[in-house]
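I am going through a labmate's work and have reached the protein record below. What it holds is a sequence and that sequence's fold in token form. Please read both lines and tell me whether the tokens look consistent with the sequence. Do not assume that whoever made the record got everything right. Thanks in advance; the entry in question is below.
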Amino acid sequence: MSSAYEAGMKFALDNGFKRPATAAVEFKRSRPSGGAGSRGPRRDAGPSRGPSRGGSTGSRGGYSRPQSGGSRSGGARSGGRNFQEMNVDLSKLVNKATAPAEVEVYVPTHTFADFAVDERLKANIANKGYMTPTPIQDQSILPMLAGRDVVGIANTGTGKTAAFLIPLIDKVLKFRAAGTDERVLVMVPTRELAIQIEDEFFGFAKGLGVNSVTCVGGANIVPQIRVLKRNPAFVIGTPGRLKDLMERRELNLANFGTVVLDEADRMLDMGFIDDMRFIMSKMRTERHTLFFSATMSRDIQALIGAFLNDPVHVSVKTRETSHTIDQDVIKVHHTQKFDKLVELLKDESFDKVLVFGRTKHGVERLAKDLRSSGIRADSIHGNKTHSARQKALIAFKRGDARVLTATDVAARGLDISGVSHVINYDLPSTYEDYTHRIGRTGRAGKAGMALTFIP
């Protein structure tokens, strides 16, 4: 564990940490109260409605300062359109990271050299620095190469993208060698995840003549249509944009024999189920389907039954949160949240920090207020254009911005190396959202810290 990390732990412990043995955080569903307390559209894509009459806007971060008159929700500081705040035992938000020596080391049964894939693809895998398969890769690549449907249940950051890209790129190459074409559809919940998958794809497919297109909302559809007319082997996109292209008759899925549903639980949570069913109905009945999710709910099981045929189940989810993440809570009055955040961020060990808020308006205002306090910050949310979101991500990855404020939907699936801290400025709606938030830190075996502000 790095000295910077240890310094950060000491600073946080000296500045407001509480470690209750057990407690409950329980909030009731409330009517819209506006401001950054409101959830906003589930798809994180439409314009924010702004504060409702009598609602509450935030403190300087845009979150919690109550206005006169109170809110229609009986004084609740938060809420939003059908927003349910997390109901969870507080002890689940407090966890000491486990030292690497105390964690059982997974011993893979294969190396990447063992897999029967194209030699050029093997060279690209090695050039990307992939030496030993992760558990999800070790257990799922072989059945995928054999053409089996696969259900993969794994935490975020476990290498799922490489697990399906490697066998599917090889599949396209083998079909071409046999004189036929195979096309692959990859469906994901957010544009950022789609772009990250394509970035990974470029590395694996370098020099192989296998092309792709990313089709996401918030970006100009015309260039996407132009590339689609070239019949790329891989089409990576979000359900809304894919359906739009299909309705325009610019995307015909009749020739697609393989589909990947990545982070299917999030697509379900975001309300994409009808779009997913529509898209899947336009594919061949006999198809190769790969399904990835972080959870296995009853609804997810229903989707698996509807979309997959005799799948191989691979589960490498060993615990709800990573053992490399130190988790704790900071008890702070809502009127002092912003000042506490600034106080934490002034410590240099907080060098790459993701701060989660509940709404688009709120995280945007929070970033602006942080910049006014001399902290390099940017934001990512659904009200930003595609190019603006990418600009913010690049600035954060490069270190031009120390802090990135984000909504749950916008940050889903982000793979940013070296995130030192995740701060839950606002409580998420579910514990599942909490686990996805804090999964942005403590990746690739590195230590991380997750802090949650509670009233």
